[in-house]
């Protein structure tokens, strides 16, 4: 049950402090959201946890192991994965081909990534299961470039899940998704494996209040407060600083 444990995490860019003395826990099965105004340091925090950035001070432990100096690739291998605000897919490949890539890479068979894997029923079965989980089966042989943006975000989420992470960080999963398609994202998050630790970084407060069990509010690189959606919605400081006093 150790999961992810962050203590005193700080990041400086020269004289600018963008993350300051952050304590944060993410346990198996957690559904947490990280919110805050633009410039609060949310993406910086995610990049520190995933190894894209190196902390100035503080510690990051995963299952009791200090991973603060490990690079991004090593952390992915350990089970920490992150999606991005902009889709990072292969637009000319089909949905099936996109999802086959991380499965083969995870199995250290990347040299076969652009070949059909018809001879490997295990790989194809996993790809089919991923497509079914995210309601993508009917789109299996369509090029990703021809999908609606909300569907592309689902493909990216399925692709990240193919890495079999134990910690999944979703960096603005609804960014760019038309309002009529955001239900695709909320449904996909709701159907993620129950033992997966999930951190959602998002500006869409309707999505946050639907999927999060706990919400962490970040302001100017520091944690202002943490609580249940009901507690956060009722917090006067949060309403003033972020929710604009109008979220019921």
TrEMBL record:
One of its GO terms (molecular function) is ATP binding. Gene3D superfamilies: P-loop containing nucleotide triphosphate hydrolases. Keywords: ATP-binding, Hydrolase, Nucleotide-binding, Transport. It comes from the Bacteria. The keyword ATP-binding applies. Residues 4-245 form the ABC transporter domain. It holds the Pfam family BCA_ABC_TP_C. One of its GO terms (cellular component) is plasma membrane. Its EC number is 3.6.3.-. SUPFAM superfamilies: P-loop containing nucleoside triphosphate hydrolases. This is Lipopolysaccharide export system ATP-binding protein LptB. It comes from Flavimaricola marinus. The gene is lptB_5.
